[in-house]
From TrEMBL:
The keyword Transmembrane applies. It comes from the Bacteria. The lineage of its organism: Bacteria, Pseudomonadati, Thermodesulfobacteriota, Desulfuromonadia, Geobacterales. Keywords: Cell membrane, Membrane, Transmembrane, Transmembrane helix. One of its GO terms (biological process) is cobalt ion transport. It is found in: Cell membrane. GO terms for cellular component: ATP-binding cassette (ABC) transporter complex. InterPro entries: ABC/ECF_trnsptr_transmembrane, Cobalt_transport_CbiQ, ECF_CbiQ. This is Cobalt/nickel transport system permease protein. It is a multi-pass membrane protein. The chain crosses the membrane at residues 6-25, 32-56, 68-91, 186-203.
Length: 204
């Protein structure tokens, strides 16, 4: 029943949260590719007679695939519907160390800095025909890696300098929004979670 849980969570994410199907598929495609390759290794066995498909391996692969798909869809539901600041606020309420949360914030921020730097440099290289052929592509790729490394390092140093200029010697804090229907939403979430657990526990 894990596959049913994964399907239900995916529908809730796409229909309930309004996530475009194309965006959802782009986000889940790498995980599904890795899951497919991993499942393939359980479907076959190698012996003296060659490659054989076993029924036990098929059942094990189906169970593993369903559980992994349910986990991936649940993770994507949180990632695509919950702002990072709210996740950090919850983790801070759970008394996680401030140092760990600060590292998560800075790492999350640097992901966007890295992506923006790669996009800008690659656009400039493409405008100069940097990827016109294989030899030029290899050269442009090396220059891209070097330029991105330097640019991200400089932006990280600028971020640290800006924090020091504001006398920030403690943990990073963010304003937590107040929701008027928080209790109702919590009750709905608990009921939905209980329903998914019941579906997962149903006999096949």
């Amino acid at each position: 029943m894990s596959g049913t849980v994964a399907f239900v969570i995916a529908l809730i994410t796409i229909i309930g949260a309004g996530i475009p199907v194309s965006r959802y598929l782009r986000a889940i495609a790498p995980a599904l590719l890795f899951l497919g390759l991993s499942t393939l290794t359980l479907l076959v066995s190698f012996d003296s007679s060659g490659i054989t498909f076993t029924g036990a391996g098929r059942d094990q692969a189906a169970q593993l695939c369903g559980r992994a798909a349910a986990s991936v869809t649940a993770l994507l539901f949180v990632a695509l519907t919950t702002p990072m600041t709210e996740i950090l606020s919850l983790l801070r309420k759970l008394k996680l160390p401030d140092l760990l949360l600060d590292m998560a914030v800075i790492g999350y921020r640097m992901l966007f800095v890295f992506s923006d730097a790669v996009q800008q440099i690659r656009t400039a290289q493409s405008a100069r025909l940097g990827y016109a052929n294989y030899r030029h592509s290899l050269r442009a790729l090396g220059q891209l890696v070097a330029a991105v490394t330097l640019q991200v390092w400089q932006r990280a140093a600028a971020l640290d300098l800006a924090a020091s200029a504001r006398c920030n010697d403690g943990s990073l804090r963010f304003l937590t929004p107040v929701y008027g229907h928080a209790r109702r939403d919590l009750a709905v979430s608990l009921c939905a979670g209980a329903g998914l657990i019941m579906i997962a526990l149903l006999p096949v």
